[in-house]
Design a protein that fits this description.
The strands form three sheets. Strands 3-4-7-8-2-1-9 form a seven-stranded mixed sheet, covered by helices on one side. It has a six-stranded mixed sheet with strand order 11-12-10-13-14-15, sandwiched between helices. The longest helix has 26 residues. By secondary structure, the protein is of the alpha/beta class.
Length: about 525
Amino acid sequence: MSYHPNDTICAIATAAGGAARGMVRISGPDAIAIVARCFLPNDGESIEQLRSATARTGRFSVGRTILSVSDSANAHKTDRIVRPTSESWLPCDLFLWPTSRSYTREPVAELHTLGSPPLLQAVTDLVCSVGARLAEPGEFTLRAFLAGRLDLTQAEAVLGVVDARGADELDTALAQLAGGLARPLHELREQLLQLLAELEAGLDFVDEDIRFVSQDELLTRLAAGRVMLDEIAGQMASRHVAADRMQIALVGPPNVGKSSLFNALVTRFGDGDPSDRRRRVPALVSPQCGTTRDYLTATIKVNGMRCELVDTAGMGEPNNETPSFSVGENLSRIDPHGVADIEASARSQSNRLRSQVAIRAHCVEAVDVVAWDVAALQELATSDCDLVVVTKSDLMPHTSFEPLIAPTNLPIVATSSRTGAGLDDLCAELRELLTRDATQHGQIVAATANRCRQSVRLAESALRSAIEIASSGGGDELVAAEVRAALAELGKVVGAIYTDDLLDRIFKTFCIGK
């Protein structure tokens, strides 16, 4: 992206399509002068004389633009004025920030008017004809970042707000935009910068044997920084990141009814989006074990929260009927279609998905659950399973599974894909788990987590090395080197250190007008 800070930029800043109201945003050094050529306040006050943030009602000209200068040879774009034709005024509200106390820390004007796309385009064209240019994707937020109004984590949160598909994603993005992630990172950077200054001051007086920070204090401050980074790294773990759609995986042994449950849930709770073709394709159901080799996904609504349901391959033991072979035998004769390889790939893929999804629902048949003892349930609870879904409960309609919950506090929901029993209870339990997961772990906008995960890990590693060096009596110059490395990685996260390529990659994902 070519950045020209002296340009005045404009763009339609409301969503595409018709609406009752629409808005065109203008930002740059000539924003006020440009608006003054096109906007007529109802009170007749001069726009260019305003010195504080204000709102004005008035009219905006969408008439013909005429170049009016005495010497055409010396004409510049700032010499252009608007001569409105008859019936060319558009009712408009002006919101003006004439000083640096704006989103971009430069003069900003917003024109709020009728939300007709042709009218908004006419306003934009006229603003461009009298001195502005069309903004690049994300250029308003880029200017806010470069002016120090936002750091990179907050800039990415702006995109998270725009792209939020539900209340939970919006809350996550708004919390990050308000500094929920930036604040602790900046505090940690300040603490490490102070610590580095004290270490380097001590190195300057090494001949006098003066220490500006004691050994115990050094270890305490380094350990505190590492704890904070561990917490942030936990928030950035893949299964706790706010993505477009939280994933819920149906896992468990083969042929326990996962695919039937998948179909039942999609039928009952599918979001009905015609563009999502995946939900129209039911999972293949068969009494033959191992029917699901790949995984299927579909979008469902869990009490209003859009999630992605995943039907995974069975995770039982490898098929005992796989032919045995001895060393040197022709494997193509024994397994001509590579079935064993396919099954191994399916198990590997299921394991990978299991570690990434937000919720893992372990499915087991009702006839098997009644034979469980407390030890078996406790083993399942410690295997990183979030809840147990009892399938085919219609085969044992008079059995109560409630006593199994008490020993481990692991949620258990009995369902029947055939009758639909328990599906609403399962939906409510999933919503409870998703909400509790977000509350306990916190969430970060997916774009931020994907970009910063490696830097946070390297910063934590540098502090760990610094602690080891300090504990073993190593020199302060070695500790200082590790602290500098941690600061460099944290600088990449918040944007204190950045490259043009990084800014392009982040801000080109924005829409024009943001």
